[in-house]
Design a protein that fits this description.
The structure is a homodimer. Chain A contains 16 helices and 13 strands. By secondary structure, chain A is α/β, with parallel strands linked by helices. Chain A has three domains: about 50 residues; about 240 residues, Nucleoside phosphorylase/phosphoribosyltransferase catalytic domain (Pyrimidine Nucleoside Phosphorylase, Chain A, domain 2, 3-Layer(aba) Sandwich); about 90 residues, Alpha-Beta Complex (Aldehyde Oxidoreductase, domain 3). In chain A, the strands form four sheets. In chain A, strands 1-4-5-13 form a four-stranded mixed β-sheet, with helices on both faces. A four-stranded antiparallel β-sheet of chain A has the order 6-9-11-7, with helices on both faces. The longest helix of chain A is centred in the middle third of the chain and has 17 residues. The mean pLDDT of chain A is about 95. Chains A and B meet through helix 1, helix 3 and helix 8 of A and helix 1, helix 3 and helix 8 of B.
């Protein structure tokens, strides 16, 4: 099968056959002798971007991409395995909260996460703010963690969906990232490789999200639910608001602190509520009754916090951070506040600007190879809708490097809006797709 | 300027700026440090294929591609310089006839042609059937030929539009050839490099043509006229039929013979008429009055034949071929005829099948690196509309290699259709675009 013929099919708006998709995915996984070059792949990616894919094509592409690598088989471990995945946001540390909560309710959570890039953070980076925490688990270590803790939090091994790695790198530089079928296949091929039976998807929507509009977010959520289900994965999706940061802390170590506080019952309402709802969906997908009540009980009893403590210990981290935040190495020496210029209300905090600013003071990455400073970040003292007096701290920016701070400052200053009245409250969970 | 941003502009249906087109073309010409890889180029080519280009974009792309290489400056040679270009057909040897005719009327013809590929032939291959004929002229040799003969027939040097070479090679393997703006820029960037002031374009349409439909042919003709004119080239186009082969001889040496016969006044009516009309348009573009009458006079007086003889001599060929066709090395030892199975009329000869058959007996190329046998080909004894008796030769296939002949025979046999009545005659010149 010649690459040009496969490309031509999609160029002309046709449906790719399974054999054509296999050829494409084998090429992306760099199987020798495929006869494809990267320039064939990108021409096809652009044709897919512009002409789309049917549900059947997307489902088979997802399966073929998962099959391009190792797929964990956890069927010998008894118990329901469920994971959660988010499209990424600012201040979104729910994984650190709902993973322990779901595990405390009897769900096995083999969670493979990614790193932060651009304005959004990554679970692995947050976990690595905990001294000693090892996210590079082998399959054996993951099985051990599931058996002892019910939760393993790790990065993807290089054997997981290698076709996705090639395709994502090419999409990133050829303006073909924002394609619903390609995003769907990228996310789900990796989730299928985890050996789970259920997946809760958090599709963020808004200014600080990957998908900026509600319509596109819904399109993606529906595609993921449809394609996950077609591949034998019980899948449910929530569309949740990401116009303002989630919670009050943005930055890796800061987000670990807020996660622990939430598991202690002291979390901000938005973060607590979303974490509970997502965990409840996981517990439901695991086939456990009274899911939400059980999750709330795990929160108030401290059972969730206990799982997190064990998880840290199991993965080589220092469990004392749970009680001594100073072991996380924050705060850093320098803090500059954004003060309210007047009496009134915070009407808006732009999640994307906050994310970019945290990245720019060193808490995130512009390129995949950038090093992260776990200790820097932004604390939100007044969230949208909260009243302030002139001179109150609204944001506090923690940083280490003056030059980076100076570069980030204009973005930080533009992130907050003030007004005479509070904005009308918007729901955080906008929609559920099942 | 990042490649992804340029690609995104076209992906979203926007108009590329001149700076964006410059970046793309510089990259295609392999300027060091461009930051572009072939996989960027093909993603953009697919976006152009699917989202098109405005007239202004196409015009600037054409200019930038011409500027990516050496553009001949013949302004020191006084006299009008005009060329003709065809999109390629079967039995289309008009260049060998109209070049000499136009030159005999006072036009300077710096003709850069290509080689055959697939089912269509190439002028350079035909000329090389003449023993000793050198198509690899330097600029100095071309200037000399124009001064002494008024006509130089050569291949493109490697310095001509190098961006086009890269882009064409990538389009060929990524299903992005059939794009009107990309075809326009490819053809005209090379023609602009010839230092001509006028161009007559022969856009073939039909089964044996690159453009199969009249609508697409018209679209291409209009694009070429518009973009040529925008780049300061007086451009006119004819849309001509290519359902059946042009003339009676197909194959390199055979086509040289038919061209000479035509210049001697003994050519088949279709070939003679089209050559005269195209030559007349060249003479008109040169600003010479009574163009068609002058071309016909050059034909009947033998002035055109005389130019061709001088051209052969000037370029190192054996001018005695004009009077002794045996010097061309045809016929080859073996001939098998296709005979009429019944009394009646030839109603159809499929140009594409004839072209493919000639290629398959060794007269053309499947790949650019294939070697050509100049002596093989097909002679059409009865053209569509001509009466035959059962047993008459309709086609005569001249070949050297029995295995190749056997492979080509089914195609040859399917090329001719017979009937009880002649088909209604169709015009050869369908339309003119100016």
């Amino acid at each position: 099968m010649r690459p040009g013929d496969v490309i031509q099919t999609k160029r002309d708006g046709g449906e790719l056959s399974r054999a054509q998709i296999d050829a494409f995915v084998r090429a992306a996984a760099r199987t020798e002798g495929s006869g494809w070059e990267p320039y064939h792949l990108t021409a096809l990616l652009m044709a897919i971007y512009l002409n789309g894919m049917t549900a059947a094509e997307t489902a088979y592409l997802t399966q073929a991409m998962a099959d391009s690598g190792t797929r964990l088989d956890l069927s010998d471990i008894s118990g329901p395995k469920v994971d959660k995945h988010s499209t990424g946001g600012v201040g979104d540390k729910t994984s650190l909260i709902l993973g322990p909560l779901a595990a405390a309710c009897g769900v096995l959570v083999p969670m493979m996460s990614g790193r932060g890039l651009g304005h959004s953070g990554g679970t692995l980076d947050k976990l690595e703010a905990i001294p000693g925490f090892n996210v590079n688990l082998s399959e054996r270590q993951l099985r051990d963690a599931l058996a002892k803790v019910g939760l393993g939090m790790m990065g993807q091994t290089k054997d997981v969906a290698p076709a996705d790695k090639t395709l994502y790198a090419l999409r990133d530089v050829t303006a073909t990232v924002e394609s619903i079928p390609l995003i769907t296949a990228s996310i789900l091929s990796k989730k299928l490789s985890e050996g789970i039976g259920g997946l809760v998807m958090d599709v963020k929507t808004g200014r600080g999200a990957f998908m900026k509009t509600r319509a596109r977010s819904r399109e993606l959520a529906e595609s993921i639910v449809r394609v996950g289900t077609a591949n034998g994965l019980r899948t449910t999706a929530m569309i949740t608001a990401m116009d303002a940061p989630l919670g009050r802390y943005v930055g890796n170590a800061l987000e670990v602190i807020e996660s622990i506080e939430t598991l202690k019952g002291n979390g901000p309402p938005d973060l607590t509520e979303l974490s509970v709802k997502l965990a409840a969906r996981m517990v439901e997908l695991a086939g456990i009754a009274d899911a939400e009540a059980k999750v709330r009980a795990a929160l108030t009893s401290g059972a969730g916090l206990d799982v997190f403590r064990k998880c840290i210990e199991q993965q080589g981290g220092d469990p004392k951070v749970i009680d001594e935040y100073s072991r996380l190495g924050v705060p850093t020496p320098s803090m500059v506040p954004v003060k309210a210029p007047r009496d009134g209300y915070v009407t808006d905090i732009d999640a994307e600007k906050v994310g970019v600013a945290v990245r720019d003071v060193g808490g995130g990455r512009s390129r995949a190879e950038d090093k992260i400073d776990h200790s820097v970040g932004i604390v939100i003292r007044a969230k949208p809708g909260e009243q302030v007096r002139a001179g109150d701290n609204v944001l506090e920016v923690w940083f280490r490097d003056d030059t980076k701070f100076a570069a980030a400052w204009p973005t930080i200053g533009a992130a907050v809006t003030f007004g005479d009245a509070p904005p009308s409250p918007e729901p955080l969970i906008l929609e559920e797709i099942t």
